[in-house]
């Protein structure tokens, strides 16, 4: 499971626990808005010893909102609905984030909870379930879905939302086919793979303008047959704020004299003498993937114009961006639009005069 976009992705963070993997990707121009990134993992298999079951999470501030992504693999089998809820509560209790982000999973403005949650369809036998699927009467099955029913009785599920499920159960299939289980066990189809989200009450959110999340679709992908599960995906949008640092460059750098940038910092942005501006190829994956960098030095009363020598290893003509890295926030907080650098074996990145509000 991962939070991905299809093009120009940069990995913001990841967390793995045995077969469980959580990946968070971002387009490069969103990187300035991802701060306070932390990850956690909790084992619940074999009484907390084994990591085949449990949860992995990643939290961060995104566009000024605190967000947590929680990927869980909960206990299997029809009769273990109560154990699934107990494991979920245990994961929530154990996952506490440190530092300025000192909070639990449910303390975030937005929580995305997803994974192989393993909830099943109660009461109805195999023939009834398959007949409902064949006749597209999924509402009959939804009424008996264990997770859906648990929302009425489990306090920990209060506030969690799930989009309408308009796709057939995603488990269990004969591998390599679109045929539900024909093995001797004949496991009953179920919606084991789920994506839910939760918003904190408006009075508690960390951003004064609140949080707005919209779901655009929620679907399964029947074309994949490498597993006995069918993948599930969803797309959401979250409202955005302005960047802390805005960088400006010319559209092309053809001469040394072109290698100049300007930046404007937000009034309350806490600058550090250890901040730097990196030159990145478009498509970079991490803030340390710079081709070269220059310190964004801070003088007594102003930021003085300074020249810094940066040498490339070979001649190039590529698309680049500049990114402003904040030492205090341990993240990129401003980026330029892509621009081209042409045929420069060595060039100067000239530090700018600060532009104050």
Automatic annotation (TrEMBL):
GO terms for cellular component: cytoplasm; plasma membrane; ruffle. One of its GO terms (molecular function) is phosphatidylinositol-3,4,5-trisphosphate 5-phosphatase activity. Residues 2-244 form the Inositol polyphosphate-related phosphatase domain. It comes from the Eukaryota. Pfam families: Exo_endo_phos2, SKICH. One of its GO terms (biological process) is phosphatidylinositol dephosphorylation. Belongs to the inositol 1,4,5-trisphosphate 5-phosphatase type II family. This is Inositol polyphosphate-5-phosphatase Jb. It comes from Sinocyclocheilus grahami (Dianchi golden-line fish). The lineage of its organism: Eukaryota, Metazoa, Chordata, Craniata, Vertebrata.
């Amino acid at each position: 499971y991962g939070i991905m976009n299809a093009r120009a992705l940069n990995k913001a963070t990841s967390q793995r626990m045995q077969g469980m993997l959580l990946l968070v990707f971002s387009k490069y121009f969103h990187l300035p808005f991802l701060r306070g990134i932390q990850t956690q993992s909790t084992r619940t298999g074999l009484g907390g010893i084994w990591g085949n079951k449990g949860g992995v999470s990643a939290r961060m501030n995104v566009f000024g909102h605190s967000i947590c992504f929680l990927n869980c693999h909960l206990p299997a089998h029809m009769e273990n609905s109560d154990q699934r809820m107990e494991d979920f509560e245990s994961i929530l209790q154990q996952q506490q984030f440190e530092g300025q982000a000192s909070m639990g999973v449910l303390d975030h403005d937005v929580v995305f909870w997803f994974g192989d949650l393993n909830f099943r369809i109660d009461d109805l036998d195999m023939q009834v379930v398959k007949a409902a699927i064949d006749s597209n009467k999924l509402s009959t099955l939804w009424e008996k879905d264990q997770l859906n029913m648990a929302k009425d009785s489990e306090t920990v599920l209060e506030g969690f939302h799930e989009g309408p499920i308009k796709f057939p159960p995603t488990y269990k299939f004969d591998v390599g086919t679109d045929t539900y289980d024909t093995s001797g066990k004949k496991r009953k189809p179920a919606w084991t793979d789920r994506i839910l989200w939760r918003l904190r009450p408006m009075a508690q959110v960390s951003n004064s303008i609140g949080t707005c999340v919209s779901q655009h679709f929620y679907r399964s992908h029947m074309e994949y047959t490498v597993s006995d599960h069918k993948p599930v995906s969803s797309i959401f949008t979250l409202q955005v704020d302005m960047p802390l640092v805005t960088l400006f460059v010319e559209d092309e750098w053809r001469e040394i004299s072109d290698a100049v940038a300007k930046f404007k910092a937000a009034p309350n942005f806490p600058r550090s003498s250890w901040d730097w501006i990196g030159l990145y190829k478009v498509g970079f994956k991490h803030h340390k993937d710079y081709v070269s960098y220059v310190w964004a030095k801070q003088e007594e009363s102003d930021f003085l114009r300074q020249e810094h020598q940066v040498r490339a290893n070979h001649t190039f003509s590529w698309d680049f961006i500049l990114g402003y890295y904040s030492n205090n926030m341990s993240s990129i907080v401003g980026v330029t639009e892509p621009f081209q650098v042409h045929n420069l074996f060595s060039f100067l990145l000239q530090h700018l005069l600060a532009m104050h509000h």
